[in-house]
Amino acid sequence: MKAFKSPAKWLADVDADAAGMLIAAAADIALIVDRKGIVRDVAFQSASFANEFDQSETWIGRPWADTVTVESRTKVTEMLHDMAGKADDRPNPLGRHVNYPAREGKDVPILFSTIPVGHSGRAIAFGRDLRALASLQQRLVDVQQSLERDYSRLRHVETRYRILFQMSAEPVLVLDGQSQKIVEANPAAQRLFGDRDKLAGLAFAGLVEPESRGALEQLLGSIRAAGRMDDVRIRLTDHDSEMRISAFLLRQGEGQNYLLRLSPVSPVDPHNLLSDSKAKLLKLIESAPDGFVVTGNDGRLLAANAAFLDMTQLGSEEQAHGQTLDRWLGRPGVDLNVLSANLRQHGSVRLYPTFLRDEFGTQTEVEISAVTVMNGGKPCFGFAIRNIGRRTAPEFIPPATTTRAVPRSLEQISELIGRVSLKEIVREATEVIERLSIEAALKITGDNRASAAEMLGLSRQSLYVKLRRYGMMDAEALGVA
After folding, report:
1. Topology given in CATH for the domain delimited by 7-11+22-129
2. What is the pTM of this model?
3. Which residues form the PAS domain (predicted)?
4. How far apart are CA 65 and CA 157, in angstroms?
């Protein structure tokens, strides 16, 4: 602390009231304490700050040590002892952190410094509010702990990556995205290239036969542009057999690296070769004018032919991979569920009417036939999708069935015109349409009432009520209901 040079000259006319105002303004809290440690007076910089202390109005006349928290009483006793041992009126250079009980919430931290006054043993304790500093310190501690947790988690992730990288039986390389030089290589890659000690830093293109470098450049360029590409085959120098290479893009900050996985091309198993007839069949399906897709058990596309891509306005088959077929079917959440349920139960579905929606929202009427096949012990679904939007009546409907007979109830409704009010006619027509809609939904869903209710936008209970009303419940169902 550096005091004034000439206080007697400039502060000689300061009386006790002015000194008290100066002390109250200079500190957040100030105490006048006698030689026995009894609080004789208290000053706060603001009334709101005084209200934050618990029972601050009872401090006067009590020992200073009794007004603070239990863990701070020793500090107050030491400050009083240091103050009593000082022969001059210089301030105590060592501030002490003291906590006071608060009316609400946490304790109030105060940093006190004491100054003896005169020769009577009295002293003034100047206090500064440390809550803002304590809050910053707590935030600093929280941030430090968060950083330590993140660092520990990243360290564990890196350790797992290192273990997998080293234990992988397949050769794995990490290439720099700009120079395409090898940054890291696992032990399998070291063995593949003859245990070269200085494999890191070499250009990977130099380890590839010249005729395979074009395929490598195309692979890396496609990965950089689209993020994915099918595996390609290359030949390495000093290796007679072909290698299949897969590439993945790794982003590190603003830079990019490539993760390459090499695997030998397995010799062709003659038992797995398709016969000429099967190969022609696959080629026919790929070129067929009707859409054909293969999905997994969850409805996500595994393969699609060119006609389906044209119907959905997709640019490539990769855009359809992994997408659920429900994305393009007309009634999301209904059609695919109905088809999947029937496929699991019966194994095939024929001529299911719905409509297909392309990427731009255009709808096309289609018929779907589907079948279940097993692939590696897991079921897959094949869907044949035919566009019937431009189908004319003579092409697919026999002449005898081109006109559908009007239901008897509709004939009765036409006879009511002029005899009853329009309101009653509308009610009769509504019931006819409702019954026909329920019949159509049950026919489409193979009498699956849960799916029919979902297709009609009804609850199962509401559908059962309507079935009873129109006499469409069989005796067994009525007994269960």
Report:
1. Beta-Lactamase (3.30.450)
2. 0.37
3. 157-194, 277-318
4. 53
